[in-house]
Amino acid sequence: MNNPYLPKRVRIEKIIDETVGRDIKSFVFSFLDPQDRQSFDYHPGQFAEISIAGAGEIPIGIASSPTEGDTVMFTVKKMGVVTKDLHNSSPGRIVGLRGPYGNGFPMEELKGKHIVIVGGGFAFTTLRALAVYLMGEERRKDYGDITIIYGARTPGDLIYRQELEAWSQRKDLNVHITVDKAEPGWQGKEGFVPAVVKQVAPSAKEAIAIVCGPPIMIKFTIPILFELGFAADKILNSLEMRMKCGLGKCGRCNIGHKYVCKDGPVFTYAELQNMPPEY
Amino acid sequence: MRLLFLQKEELEPFVSRLIAWQEVVGPKAKKNRFVFDKLESPAELRLDYDTTILPPKKYFFQPQQDLIRFSPEGFTGCIEPKPRIIFGVHPYDIKAISMLDYLFSDGKKDWNYLANRQAATIVGINVHQVFKTAFFESMGASIVTKGYDLFLTDIGEEGFVVEVATDKGEALLAYGHFTQVTPDQAQKRRKILYGQSDRCSQKLFNLPEEVSEKVALSFYHPIWEEMASRCFSCGACNLVCPTCYCFDVQDMWNLDQESGIRFRTWDGCLTEDFAKVTVQGGTENFRQDRSSRYRHRIMRKAVYLNSKLGGPACVGCGRCASACPADLANPVPVLNKIMEG
User: Fold this and answer.
1) I want to staple B329 with a disulfide (CB 3.0 to 4.6 A). Which of A69, A85, B237, B318 is the partner?
2) Using a CB-CB distance cutoff of 8 angstroms, which residues of chain A are in contact with residue B299?
3) Nearest CA distance, B36 vs chain A (angstrom)
4) CA gyration radius, chain B
């Protein structure tokens, strides 16, 4: 009998410091048993449980795209018991991983559409997975314009900074990076994400907006997307927190009729409007 | 339907032989209440019980259940089901077990529960005495037609009409002396199971479907605040509930500090910590107010799980009402009041 709580063993191959504050790190894992990678069949927007013996488990959005090979990457902010333990790791450490879980982004539905990705702070992780997937050589033609608007408090808080710079150079992407507060030497925009969305004003025609970030950013971004003509069912959010077991059992992430870990974590704004205001 | 008959004086030898064969648990007296517990002798079995403090779910979904073991070598599962006969389960509890069976099978199967469930044989019994706060009649849980292996109907001095529902139930027959049922006995069984009504003092004035529809629209009703102002957030209502299945997961090291276990424990949405999460810069509670937690429990029972279960996630056992130290957990007056307004 298959125990759904049993993690697979993964090795930390690489740890990348993402921010100046050193409290956000990316962890690149490889599966000890290649078969386990085979069965870890994921797509952007899904999450998995990182498992550290003695500390516990945390549900974390997958930051890599399935098109990036056999390793799987997670970007984790140091917050509680498990994340602190993980942050203290060195490459080579063996930890556990189970998943993938959740609905992820509706990849079929995104085909043929213009894509507007709006991210804030360290919630850019699954958006990175999505962006990398969409811009891949064989897939880029399947989508219309791709607009990426991403902001953080300061330049030092931007994650995936080198990649962002590389994306900015591409002709087939509209990349807008902003910081709340510029520093000497900062070449990009200054201003809050919602304001930049307003300024960039991506067309809502045949477009889907995917928004992930701190609640305050989402709160002010949604009305602007409405102004631009995005319907509530064309705006996607990912509810990253609250989950626990990942299997739709433990009840922690239950909001109304939905379990975030099973029915989500990606919901349209229209779906969220029908849920009790407990998220 | 296959019916047999067990004479009253044949009950003890039957249970006695079952005990010699397998672990048998059943309702036993404990102070002025009853509990499901391991039977050492058939004399301990109290089929005349009203209800037990905890429902029989504790045998499948234990208050603390190991999920995995870890050691420097890796992780191993610990699904080690133990065959067990649960003797004397009331219809409302059988209905609740069927709900949990569904919920733990829905989507990704939780074999940590299901293995225990499959290893159990359930012997049902009709309700002899009605618990003071029970309202199972209002929840359509006074009769069940599935979810058990054998079902005994006590027809009085003569004995029990026994319905054999499954192969697992069939396997128990070898341990007792069963005879053919007479038409008269079968008739008595029907009368007892289907002919009784109005036994519960607690009643909903509306059908569960009507309640569900209206409660769903009552998210901002003043009653939540009103009731919860007296709530201690102790979670006793959750702990005694046969359909509550939320849990927390924790890790514990063994003394060697190298190996340990990951286990789950019963959790309750009424407790303050339940909806607390670690966020940037501290913790956040999605149901900070007692009233939101009180509402969540009633909503889950009356509304949220209906789409999965096809009806309310409550069987009217009345345990929550009797366990609540502030006497506010009984859903009946709350639901009736919402329906009135």
Assistant:
1) B237
2) 256, 276
3) 24
4) 21
Residues of chain A with CATH 3.40.50.80: 107-238
Q: Do B111 and A80 touch (CB under 8 A)?
A: no
Q: Do B279 and A241 touch (CB under 8 A)?
A: yes
Cα separation values, B327 from B124, B199, B228, B236, B244, Å = 30, 22, 11, 11, 19
Of the options 1.10.150.120, 3.90.550.10, 3.40.50.80, 3.30.40.10, the CATH number for the domain spanning A107-238 = 3.40.50.80
Q: Does A262 touch chain B (CB under 8 A)?
A: yes
- Tokens representing B200 are 């519960």
> Residues A118-172: pLDDT tens digits?
999 989 999 999 999 999 999 999 999 999 999 999 999 999 999 999 999 999 9
CB-CB under 8 Å, A214 with B76:
no
The pLDDT tens digits of the residues spanning B138-173 come to 999 999 999 999 999 999 999 999 999 999 999 999
CATH number belonging to domain A8-101 = 2.40.30.10
| pTM to 2 decimal places | 0.94
Cα-Cα end-to-end distance for chain B: 45
Integer CA distances (angstroms), A51 to A85, A161, B337, in order: 10, 27, 46
The full set of domain ranges for chain B reads: 2-63+75-195, 208-246+268-340
